[in-house]
Amino acid sequence: MKKAISLLLTLAMLLGIGSMVSAFAADAGVKVGFGRHDFTPNYEVPLAGYTTTRYGSETLTPEDRLLSTVVAIADGSGNTVLICTSDMTRIYADWITELRKAMSKASGVPENNIHISATHTHSSIEGNDPIAEKGTEFYSTYINGFAKAAKEAVDDLTSVTVKVGKVNIPYLNQLRHYWRANGHINGANFESTDGGKWLSNPTQADNEVQIIRFVREGKKDVLMLNWQAHPITASASTDYGKAHKPYISADFIGYCRNYLEKQDGDCLVAYYTGASGNVNPYHLVPKYRDFETCPQETPLHGERLAGYILPALQNLKTIDPTGPVKQMQMFAKTPDNGLSTIVPFELNAISVGKSIGFVTAPYEMVSEHGMYVKENSPFEITFVLYLCNGRGGYIPSLYTYDYSELFPGNPQVYETYVCKSAKGTGEDFAQSMVNMLNLLYK
Questions:
Q1: Domain coordinates of the chain in residue numbers?
Q2: Is 142 helix (H, G, I), strand (E, B) or coil?
Q3: Residue 395 in contact with residue 275, Cβ under 8 Å?
Q4: pLDDT tens digits for 124-151?
């Protein structure tokens, strides 16, 4: 089946099944703008990310508040792309359609040039819940606020000097398949002592943060970050799948943003979750996690992450900010996991000159896929934007399908059990993204 899926994507790339469009290109200096909207509800909402529904109605600190962020990047001819992120668990395809319409109308940026990803915090709402349906208070606040942020970002466009870099963050995340407890390969509890054991490492978590800093004369810089870890420090308890007393939170991302903006003093932070479908944070609270101590982990994790990033900002490499801003889109289809339904999806690649690349993934791609894209990208810095431009669900790597054979009697790995796409889809996505980046680079 793997070869069949590869053929589908190859045909889509070469023959235009769906479409593949170079949206814009012009050699000139780059301009960057920033917009942000706080959409934190002040009433009870269902919190997503687990099999059991939880409800939250308060934030514990300002750092927990939910934000939508828009970074506008334009070339000298005024052709503009919006790279957006939002503290939602997921943003489904129908929402993306409505967001693009509203943001395009407000900002003047073409709908296909607007890319919207979720940070995937498990202490926020997701767009398919009835409380967020069209016409509700949450829906109106969210759509209108995002559109306002898009206009704000475009109005804020300013010439920039561009700096890029990477920093390795050790000890803050783990592949959750390393640990097996209570017969569950997907056990996420690092500190469990009830019969768990370490698995042999099939691969390694991606600990690298990608950094882009757009330095703006007379305005605060725009700092873009891309890192791979599930934002679950505010919501998970000792027993996987259960949760402590719920509250609304951007998770460690909010604390990381706040810490960097306060300590640096001259930047606005846009955080993008990378390919992290199988990556969880290390649990930092000593001993056992419980309903009361779990919230302590969120600021710890966010500020430790920021603590690694902050000194790296002093050693960024200045690159040439000129050159075209280009985009390529691919709309194609792949079989579902039962091979009975053809599932549509959208992939995008965006480049800024010869140094910066972005790719969008509509699903929860895993660490191995993100590392493959970055290692094979021709660009110096490549952001993998997770849960971007619709849909949801896991896209596991091929090796996770073999766990039941390696450990007889164990249940199927959770990500493969709930995956709605055919085996091998993630690898094909990753290869297609690399192909698109190479085409943009030429």
A1: 2-441
A2: helix
A3: no
A4: 988 777 787 888 889 999 999 999 999 9
